[in-house]
Specification:
Number of helices: 18
Distance between the termini: 36 Å
Strand content: 5-15%
Strand order of the largest sheet: 11-10-9-12-13
Structural class: alpha/beta
Shape: globular
Largest sheet: 5 strands, parallel
Length: about 450
């Protein structure tokens, strides 16, 4: 028996199955992108445990973080004593180069001033502490990622008026380490020096060596973050996750920002590469032209797989916006587009994509939830659902194929190692989407209609 009613009732004060999680998860993920950094959750032990668990289950790599371990006393009198004790233990036991503190609902509600607490600490020589305000009752994990990236730039980036490193800063957004590797590969192919911040590649996708390393080799170094103020430009990939950091670097160090979509699909990847060309004057190498030509060839060869198909897309705003543009380029109709992260720019960007393509009748919602998405599908179904693992319940009940995409993916593995960005990532997405649609066609075909060549 379905627990989701077909009749839709307007709700203003209740969210059911949100398409998001809380700020500290995003802040913790951003902190992991700093070399030899230990994320620290200033709140209760349960909060930190949940955040670590959620990231560990998605990346299938151990995510390490510490906590101030609030109890009733800290909830009444404040968490200064807990934080001071935590920091002493951290330096003694774990010895990171950097500690990145994020707040939680509890510490924010009681009004802890983490900045003043850090200022009064006696830090060991050569150690760094940064902090970001990340209350879970505002925004989402994407907001938390954005706040931590902005904090690391605000508190660390420096400008030397007499020096320029001739680099491009790349803020990749809330994407997997496989995506960060692909963005870096494209930039290296063009011969462009860069700093990616943060960079979780080599951290949450570190190799099995037989020896546990608490601080893997990956991540952006403190020196690189400080030097980001001497770069010639910053490219922020995804306005929701990366824009604030790029604008902060402009305010502090006068580094020009460029805000683009997450480079998913042909158009968004073209825009990223051409922006690199405009900033640096470098030419596009044949290797990238070849990859683009292969992708266009694949899209042409498989166009009939997608033409006229409808999809429901949900997840984090930056990747959903880019995915919407991509499925439209494949000839599909994104019938429902939903994110749980608030922000009017989401609907504006999606509507602009749809208007440019002449696609009408699409329901776009933010913040939205999976209950409403399920009800829309019950009233008018789609051919495909594109979203994270939480979509499997809708997919199973409504008997619709699910292409797993975004964060979190908890019931499949390997996805964090393989990119969805760039031309190579678009090829992978085409394989996933086409495979799901053709598997359904095979399953539903009668014996006499089962085709060998499709």
């Amino acid at each position: 028996m379905s627990l989701t009613p077909k009749k839709i009732t307007e709700r203003s004060g209740l969210v059911v199955n949100p398409v998001k999680t809380c700020q500290p998860i995003g802040a913790m993920y951003a902190a992991l992108g700093i070399n030899k950094c230990l994320p620290h959750s200033h709140g209760s032990q349960g909060c930190c445990s949940f955040h670590r668990m959620h990231l560990t289950r998605h990346f299938r790599d151990p995510v390490v973080a510490t906590t101030s371990s609030f109890t009733e006393g800290a909830s009444v009198f404040g968490g200064r004593s807990n934080l001071n004790t935590s920091m002493k233990n951290i330096w003694k036991l774990y010895n990171p180069d950097v500690v990145a503190i994020n707040t939680t609902c509890l510490s924010e509600t009681i009004g802890d001033d983490v900045g003043s607490m850090i200022a009064s600490m006696d830090l060991p020589e050569g150690k760094t502490v940064i902090h970001a305000s990340t209350p879970s009752y505002v925004g989402s994990h994407i907001t938390g990622y954005s706040n931590m990236v902005q904090a690391m730039i605000k508190q660390l980036a420096q400008k030397d008026e007499e020096a320029s490193n001739e680099k491009i800063n790349l803020i990749p957004g809330f994407v997997d380490p496989g995506d960060m590797r692909e963005i870096k590969r494209i930039t290296k192919l063009m011969g462009i020096p860069f700093t990616m911040l943060p960079d979780t590649s080599g951290v949450v996708d570190s190799p099995m060596t037989g020896k546990y390393e608490m601080y893997p080799k990956g991540g952006t170094t403190i020196e690189e973050i400080k030097d980001s103020g001497n770069s010639k430009a910053t490219i922020a990939l995804g306005s929701f996750a990366s824009e604030a950091g790029a604008f902060e670097l402009e305010r502090k160090c006068d580094v020009k920002p460029y805000v683009l979509k997450t480079p998913i699909g042909v158009k968004a990847t073209d825009e990223f590469i051409m922006q690199l060309v405009k900033i640096t004057g470098e030419e596009v190498p044949y290797a990238l032209e070849e990859e683009r030509g292969q992708l266009v060839d694949i899209m042409t060869d498989t166009h009939f797989h997608f033409h006229g198909k409808t999809a429901a897309i949900f997840g984090d705003p930056d990747v959903v916006i880019a995915m919407t543009e991509f499925v439209v380029s494949l000839g599909m109709t994104p019938k429902y587009v939903v994110t749980g992260t608030p922000g009017k720019e989401f609907k504006q960007q999606v509507d602009a994509i749809l208007e440019d393509a002449g696609v009408e009748g699409v329901k776009v919602k933010n913040p939205g939830d999976l209950l409403e998405l399920h009800q829309w599908i019950k009233n008018e179904s789609v051919d495909l659902i594109i979203g994270n693992s939480y979509g499997k319940y809708i997919a199973k009940e409504e008997d619709i194929p699910l292409v797993r995409f975004g964060f979190p993916i908890l019931d499949r593995s390997v996805q964090s190692y393989l990119p969805i960005v760039g031309y190579k990532g678009a090829m992978r997405l085409i394989e996933k989407i086409s495979g799901a649609l053709l598997d359904r066609a095979d399953r539903d075909a009668t014996e006499e209609d089962l085709e060998l060549v499709m």
